[in-house]
Amino acid sequence: YNADKKLDWSNFKGKTDPQSDATAITSSGFGYEAGVHYKNEKTTITIAVYCYFSKLNSWVRAGGQSDYALNHEQHHFDVTYIVTNLFIQKLKDAKFTRNNYDALIDKIYMESCKELELMQNEYDGQTRNGRLKSIQADWNEKIEKKLALVK
């Protein structure tokens, strides 16, 4: 994720799903890699978190490439970034020990994945996949405010 580089339709390289009635699909998510190092009775936990957009799993239907639709899809990626930052904050707030770090990281990650799924479903559900323009405008504002807090 790069806040200064927005998606464009050339990023959507996936094959259209004929079973879907969507104009476009954004495939995005987040993950982490964790490592632990023991030295002189001291434990150091290193966690690298990443937020991604999958070009090969994101697609747009022919004729569906409007600025309005792209904005809706960009906000799906933005929601992923917002939740990624919430995940990072939860990691920073966690009380890790040598004995609990692995299970605690997994627990926080699974909770954050559920939070991401819920927010994405609320976004599409309330906007009817962007079809309800006034509600889309409300979500645009909501997402922009949340982004401003994590930049």
Helix content: 40-55%
Question: Which outline best applies?
Answer: elongated
Q: For the report, how would you describe the main beta sheet?
A: 2 strands, antiparallel
Measure the end-to-end span.
12 Å
SS element count, helices: 3
Radius of gyration: 18 Å
Unreliable stretches covering 5 or more consecutive residues:
none
Q: Which H/E pattern describes the elements?
A: EEEEHHH
Strand order of the largest sheet: 1-4
Strand content is 15-25%
Structural class estimated from helices and strands: alpha+beta
Reconstruct the topology from this structure:
Layout lengths: L23 E2 L2 E12 L2 E12 L5 E2 L6 H27 L7 H27 L5 H18 L1
Antiparallel strand pairs: 1-4, 2-3
Helix pairs in contact: 1-2, 1-3
Give the gist of this structure:
The chain is of the alpha+beta class and about 150 residues long. It has helices at about 65-95, 100-125, 135-150; strands at about 25, 30-40, 40-55, 60. The chain has a two-stranded antiparallel ribbon. A two-stranded antiparallel ribbon has the order 2-3.
Description:
The chain contains 3 helices and 4 strands. It has 151 residues and is an alpha+beta fold. It is elongated, with a radius of gyration of 18 Å. The strands form 2 sheets. The chain has a two-stranded antiparallel ribbon. The termini are close together.
